[in-house]
């Protein structure tokens, strides 16, 4: 086992993020990656603000970050990877042995070791560090001229492509996206790239509505607009598919009234702990309600889409901050009224 002392972005407790020394260890079977950039995700922000992300609670300091791009420093000969090669990092480490993994549902693996997660103890460190050790299967080679600023969006885009695939064929469909933060905005782009004829976004934030339009939305509406809501409810519902990306209780419960009979709702947002849900309407309209969690092979698809410029993620990029200003980067990322995606530059 080899070691290297590096600088890493570590969360100790709520509102305590530090750039500090960290020891990276790697074996001959692992890839040592020199990290170029990392995107701050919503779960990173939750650890910063609350010391937890959902049911995953910090019990010890943890390196954050799972949206990564970097350059291979060392790779085992059997990996097919070469030193100097740029790769996008798939932060998933499923066991690949359980029944769910064997059935192709690696994203649902109960033993998943996802980078930058406090689900288990000891926690799984993330990749916001100058160097990180990886399983070769986590490294997806990029084209030689790939733009790291663009490719670091692969992980959140993979989440959105997985959600789009959960909805089925979108060609010619009318789509509603509730919540136009980074994930909702990438869902907009992914739905349009998948053939949707109309994609309308809702968000209470004017900045997010502008962001939705920049990402290609047909229209962006304040969900408190009751006149528009009444129009969407006419004839049993206007939309074929709704992607609920806000996690807000009001958005989750209202989606059923906006979706036509035999339509589909895909739930991505995880904010609300409980919801007063219109089960009766869901039943009599025979609406399919599907959860969407992380991704499987969609990560490779996301890399391909970004390299080939099938979508443009740059309207989401609000700022780039150096590793030594990591605490400031998290303060900015937590200010959703002003910022969308913040990238940390290593």
UniProtKB/TrEMBL annotation:
Transmembrane segments: none annotated. Signal peptide: none annotated. Keywords: Metal-binding, Oxidoreductase, Zinc. CDD domains: idonate-5-DH (cd08232). Residues 28-142 form the Alcohol dehydrogenase-like N-terminal domain. The keyword Zinc applies. The keyword Zinc-finger does not apply. Its cofactor is Zn(2+). GO terms for molecular function: metal ion binding; oxidoreductase activity. Gene3D superfamilies: Medium-chain alcohol dehydrogenases, catalytic domain, NAD(P)-binding Rossmann-like Domain. It comes from the Bacteria. InterPro entries: ADH-like_C (IPR013149), ADH-like_N (IPR013154), GroES-like_sf (IPR011032), NAD(P)-bd_dom_sf (IPR036291). Residues 182-307 form the Alcohol dehydrogenase-like C-terminal domain. NCBIfam families: PRK09880.1 (NF007375). Belongs to the zinc-containing alcohol dehydrogenase family. This is L-idonate 5-dehydrogenase. It comes from Candidatus Pantoea deserta.
């Amino acid at each position: 086992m080899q070691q290297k002392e590096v600088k890493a972005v570590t969360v100790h407790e709520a509102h305590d993020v530090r750039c500090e020394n960290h020891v990276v260890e790697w074996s001959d079977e692992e890839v040592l990656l020199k990290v170029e950039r990392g995107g701050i995700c919503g779960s990173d922000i939750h650890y910063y603000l609350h010391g937890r992300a959902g049911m995953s609670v910090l019990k010890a300091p943890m390196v954050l970050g799972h949206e990564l791009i970097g350059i291979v420093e060392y790779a085992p000969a059997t990996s097919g990877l070469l030193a100097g090669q740029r790769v996008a990092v798939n932060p998933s480490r499923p066991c690949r042995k359980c029944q769910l993994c064997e059935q192709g549902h690696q994203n649902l693996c109960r033993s998943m070791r996802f980078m930058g997660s406090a689900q288990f103890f000891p926690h799984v460190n993330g990749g916001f560090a100058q160097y990180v050790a990886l399983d070769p299967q986590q490294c997806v080679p990029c084209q030689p001229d790939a733009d790291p600023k663009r490719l670091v969006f692969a992980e959140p885009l993979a989440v959105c492509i997985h959600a789009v695939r959960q909805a089925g064929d979108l060609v010619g469909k009318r789509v509603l996206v509730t919540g136009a933060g980074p994930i909702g905005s990438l869902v907009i782009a992914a739905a349009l790239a998948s053939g949707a004829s109309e994609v309308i976004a809702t968000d209470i934030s004017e900045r997010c509505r502008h962001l939705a339009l920049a990402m290609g939305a047909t229209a962006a509406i304040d969900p408190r607009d009751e006149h528009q809501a009444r129009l969407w409810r006419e004839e049993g519902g206007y939309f074929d598919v709704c992607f609920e990306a806000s996690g807000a209780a009001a958005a989750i419960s209202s989606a059923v009234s906006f979706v036509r009979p035999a339509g589909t709702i895909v739930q991505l947002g995880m904010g609300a702990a409980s919801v007063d849900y219109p089960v009766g309407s869901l039943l009599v309209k025979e609406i399919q309600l599907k959860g969407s969690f992380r991704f499987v092979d969609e990560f490779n698809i996301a890399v391909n889409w970004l390299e080939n410029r099938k979508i443009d993620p740059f309207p989401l990029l609000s700022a780039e901050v150096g590793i030594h200003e990591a605490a400031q980067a998290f303060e900015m990322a937590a200010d959703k009224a002003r910022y969308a995606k913040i990238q940390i530059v290593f």
